[in-house]
């Protein structure tokens, strides 16, 4: 990869805008590839705002050549629809960085990237889209990536920017730890309540039982996680502001498709493969799937 790699970003929503702004501030403005055309992107943070010059392109046929580095920040439910962008932007020399939740980004994207290297990441910061399509950054941006040779290209692209990048030799465990937190957050969808609901004793009990089920599956998949992870996650929700939401709850309330499969279904699927009973998932997952897709 050259000293000045060509960089594109697919999916300039909450997380995509934050990363595009971080790149732009250090002089590495990416090509912006979206679904909805916008003249520019705006990221608002505690000290002000960053305007990323656009336009946001909406037609993959306008891409003239493959790019060196491609960040993917569409929801996992939108990957199939963004296949045209991935086909136009990727070849076998491209490094793709998935800015998405879950533990399956590589298998999900591999189908569409013309043999490019796909690296997953754990996205540690919350960001939310406002009514005017600007994005509100809720914490300092931070990513964790696997300590693979190609990850250095991503760390280099974000070096000196407001987004910190950590490379981990045990990415699998970190990704599953985040997945467990996301899985428990799925309970908010079914209650239609924010983090405050975890102060209830009955929800605490349910969340702990569900997280122990998730932990057994995570360990069977190779994650090294301490016995106290369920308590630590529930404790985190209990200490959070009562009105803290989660993107899957926001999607449910806006009647958008839910990332239920990569956040909750995955535990049930891998549990079945490993012969681990998942009685709580067996109730939660169909309810989340039906909430996402209907019918009814
Ligand atoms: N938001 C958070 O705080 C947060 C934190 C950690 C992890 N994550 C994860 O990060 C990922 C992205 O989430 P997000 O919250 O940033 O989602 P988002 O705000 O909904 O952004 C998705 C973006 O993708 C665009 N898009 C949709 N379909 C497309 C297509 N076919 N081609 C190109 N662009 C397309 C959307 O365009 P439109 O403008 O047309 O909708 C939007 O700009 C998810 O996996 C999420 O779970 C999010």
From TrEMBL:
<comment type="function">
    <text>Catalyzes the NADPH-dependent reduction of ketopantoate into pantoic acid.</text>
</comment>
<comment type="similarity">
    <text>Belongs to the ketopantoate reductase family.</text>
</comment>
<keyword id="KW-0521">NADP</keyword>
<dbReference type="InterPro" id="IPR036291">
    <property type="entry name" value="NAD(P)-bd_dom_sf"/>
</dbReference>
<dbReference type="InterPro" id="IPR013752">
    <property type="entry name" value="KPA_reductase"/>
</dbReference>
<protein>
    <recommendedName>
        <fullName>2-dehydropantoate 2-reductase</fullName>
        <ecNumber>1.1.1.169</ecNumber>
    </recommendedName>
</protein>
<feature type="domain" description="Ketopantoate reductase C-terminal">
    <location>
        <begin position="170"/>
        <end position="289"/>
    </location>
</feature>
<dbReference type="Pfam" id="PF08546">
    <property type="entry name" value="ApbA_C"/>
</dbReference>
<dbReference type="InterPro" id="IPR013328">
    <property type="entry name" value="6PGD_dom2"/>
</dbReference>
<dbReference type="Pfam" id="PF02558">
    <property type="entry name" value="ApbA"/>
</dbReference>
<keyword id="KW-0560">Oxidoreductase</keyword>
<comment type="pathway">
    <text>Cofactor biosynthesis; (R)-pantothenate biosynthesis; (R)-pantoate from 3-methyl-2-oxobutanoate: step 2/2.</text>
</comment>
<dbReference type="InterPro" id="IPR003710">
    <property type="entry name" value="ApbA"/>
</dbReference>
<feature type="domain" description="Ketopantoate reductase N-terminal">
    <location>
        <begin position="7"/>
        <end position="149"/>
    </location>
</feature>
<keyword id="KW-0566">Pantothenate biosynthesis</keyword>
<dbReference type="InterPro" id="IPR051402">
    <property type="entry name" value="KPR-Related"/>
</dbReference>
<dbReference type="InterPro" id="IPR013332">
    <property type="entry name" value="KPR_N"/>
</dbReference>
<dbReference type="InterPro" id="IPR008927">
    <property type="entry name" value="6-PGluconate_DH-like_C_sf"/>
</dbReference>
């Amino acid at each position: 990869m050259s000293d000045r790699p060509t960089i594109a970003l697919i999916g300039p929503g909450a997380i995509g805008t934050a990363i595009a702004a971080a790149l732009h501030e250090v002089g590495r403005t990416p090509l912006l590839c979206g679904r909805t055309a916008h003249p520019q992107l705006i990221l608002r943070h505690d000290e002000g705002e960053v305007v990323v010059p656009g336009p946001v392109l909406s037609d993959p046929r306008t891409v003239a050549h493959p790019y060196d580095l491609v960040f993917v920040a569409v929801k996992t439910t939108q990957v199939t629809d963004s296949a045209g962008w991935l086909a136009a932007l990727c070849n076998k020399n491209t490094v793709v960085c998935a800015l998405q939740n879950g533990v399956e980004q590589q298998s999900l994207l591999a189908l569409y990237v013309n043999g490019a290297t796909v690296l997953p990441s754990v996205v540690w910061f919350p960001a939310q889209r406002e009514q005017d399509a600007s994005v509100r950054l809720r914490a300092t941006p931070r990513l964790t990536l696997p300590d693979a040779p190609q990850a250095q290209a991503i760390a280099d692209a974000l070096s000196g920017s407001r987004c910190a990048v950590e490379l981990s030799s045990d990415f699998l465990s970190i990704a599953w730890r985040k997945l467990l937190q996301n899985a428990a957050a799925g309970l908010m969808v079914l209650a239609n309540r924010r983090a405050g609901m975890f102060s209830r004793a009955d929800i605490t009990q349910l969340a702990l039982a569900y997280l122990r089920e998730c932990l057994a599956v995570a360990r069977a998949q190779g994650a090294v996680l301490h016995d106290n992870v369920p308590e630590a996650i529930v404790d985190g929700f209990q200490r959070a502001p009562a009105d803290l939401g989660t993107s899957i709850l926001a999607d449910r309330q806006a009647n958008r498709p839910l990332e239920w499969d990569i956040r909750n279904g995955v535990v049930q699927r891998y549990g079945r493969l490993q012969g681990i009973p998942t009685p709580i998932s067996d109730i939660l997952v169909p309810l989340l799937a039906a909430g996402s897709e209907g019918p009814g």
